[in-house]
Specification:
The chain has 325 residues and is mostly beta strands. The chain is built from 4 helices and 19 strands. The chain has helices spanning 88-95, 132-142, 159-168, 243-256, and strands at residues 9-13, 18-26, 31-38, 41-46, 70-78, 113-122, 125-126, 149-151, 155-158, 173-178, 187-195, 199-208, 220-225, 231-237, 257-258, 273-285, 288-289, 300-301, 304-308. The strands form 4 sheets. Strands 3, 4, 5, 6, 7 and 8 form a 6-stranded mixed sheet that branches. Strands 12, 13, 14, 15, 16 and 19 form a 6-stranded antiparallel sheet that branches.
Length: 325
């Protein structure tokens, strides 16, 4: 039984498609977690190898819903809203705000469940070289869906139809997986993710001075790493905050303030920029990429701050995120 699994990651593309060689699933907007079951004991580990078990005590009974003594499952810890849709905002409320990297109690009333979509190991059998369709069949046979555990079903061939259903329900998007794909512990084009709205994770490298009646700061200065490991400026996000959010983000930014510019080149901004250590990752919604310019390359158009991603590392925020078909 493997003790460490680095989850297989999907490559982003921009448009859904139909293909008889592919299976399609709903993209669950939560925290990726690998579940290690050893008899009646459960261990939950994040994609960055952080222990999550103690953060979600209600999930400790998951082994009782799996018909195996030893198993390794791949899935997503999700909080659902009142309409049964996954809500990343609720997940953030559950985990609690952590200014300066210190966690404070989250909102205990937010319950979570585990959507399981892959089976990596079961009772002596390593399934990483077994094709996806057979892994999913075995997973469905050994799991019992309920309030804490749900099997993430798949739909063959019709990616466009599932994408439209996801759009109508206000979901984040879908994932396409080649039905014969093995489980690769890396990002692969055998798995593809298609989001309804364009979002990506950016590194926060600074902030601008506020203007007018606005307090604390104006915008977050955002960047992505290129293939040479250089942080490249891609725009500013000044919307998406309420007054409380501005105040809490300001407290965290002040703790990380530095005189050193973390960006490879200059920052295009109308107001003074204060730099911070590139330790925070922000989830950003935007309309499109601008065309490349001689002032420093493409920029995000109409970026909106959605929240901080505590489950992502800054070095994971790379230009490969914006790959298209």
């Amino acid at each position: 039984m493997p003790s460490v699994i680095r989850p297989m990651l999907a490559t982003p593309i921009t448009k859904p498609f139909d293909d008889p060689q592919w299976l399609f699933e709903i993209k669950w907007d939560g925290y990726r977690a690998v579940a290690f079951i050893n008899d009646h004991n459960l261990r939950l580990v994040s994609r960055n190898q952080n222990e999550l078990t103690s953060q979600y005590p209600e999930l400790r009974t998951l082994p009782g819903l799996v018909k195996a003594k030893k198993a390794v499952l791949d899935g997503e810890i999700v909080a659902l809203d009142e309409e049964g849709r996954p809500s990343f905002s609720l997940m953030q409320q559950r985990t609690g705000f952590r200014p300066g990297g210190h966690r404070i109690p989250g909102r205990a009333g937010v319950t979570v469940l585990y959507y399981v979509f892959d089976l990596i190991y079961v009772d002596g059998y390593d399934l990483r070289r077994v094709n996806l369709e057979e892994r999913k069949q075995a997973l469905a046979q050994i799991t019992t869906s309920g309030d804490l555990l749900r099997y993430s079903d798949h739909y063959p061939e019709n990616g466009k139809a599932l994408f439209e259903v996801a759009r109508q329900r206000g979901l984040e998007g879908i994932v396409g997986k080649h039905r014969n794909s093995c489980y690769e512990e890396r990002r692969s084009r055998e798995w593809l993710k298609i989001k309804i709205t364009q979002t990506l994770e950016c590194v926060i490298g600074g902030y601008t001075e506020p203007e007018g009646s606005r307090e604390h700061f104006g915008s977050l200065v955002l960047g992505l790493y290129d293939k040479q490991g250089r942080l490249i400026h891609v725009g500013q996000a000044g919307t998406g905050f309420d007054q409380k959010g501005l105040r809490e983000m300001w407290a965290r930014l002040k703790e990380l303030e530095t005189n050193q510019n973390p960006f490879y080149s200059g920052v295009e901004a109308l107001r003074k920029v204060h730099f911070v250590k590139p330790e925070l990752v922000a989830e950003i919604k935007f309309s499109e990429w601008t065309h490349e310019t001689h002032e420093g390359g493409p920029k995000l158009r109409a970026p909106v701050f959605l929240g901080l991603r505590h489950d992502k590392l800054p070095r994971e925020c790379v230009f490969e995120q914006v790959a298209v078909t």
